[in-house]
Amino acid sequence: MPAVAKSLVKKKPTIVLQKTRNPVPEGARIESVRALQPVQCAAIELYLQLKNAHWNVRGSNFEGLHRLFEETAGDLEQIADALAERVAVLGGEPLATVQKLAAVPNLADAPAGMKAQDEFVRVICDRLAFYIQMLANAMDAFERNSDYVSQDICTKATGVIEKKLWRTESHLPVRS
Ligand SMILES: [Fe+2]
Question: Which domain holds residue 134?
């Protein structure tokens, strides 16, 4: 590879694992942690975006959306916890400081100053759909790695988020 092109290749962050008696080979654990960290960080980011929607949404359907966004934030908190603990089980470091979360490219931030309920519904639906795709990408990595425990966590998370996407999207007019 030419030197210039090589310098443009994004380096994978180095992952150093804790010592563990877990018999899963270290290489496989590193690959799983590499796939888990982005979905773990995104769950925390998305949790905050749902709380932002819960607090800021305005409109005639305030009560329903205020409750639904809170419920979805609760789901994401549980998903983030399950993913973070799986990272720790494999000897990796769950990421939870603002600085560390910011270093992992994930979701687009919520537009500033947003209030209108339809706008919130569309933005949250886009983010939930994006997160489902992130989970699918992580599951491809677990499949290659035969990490069925991480896959199971992400499969369950996908079911929960798909259902919340349906409930949120159903606030939009038909075929929009
Ligand atoms: Fe609340």
Answer: 24-169
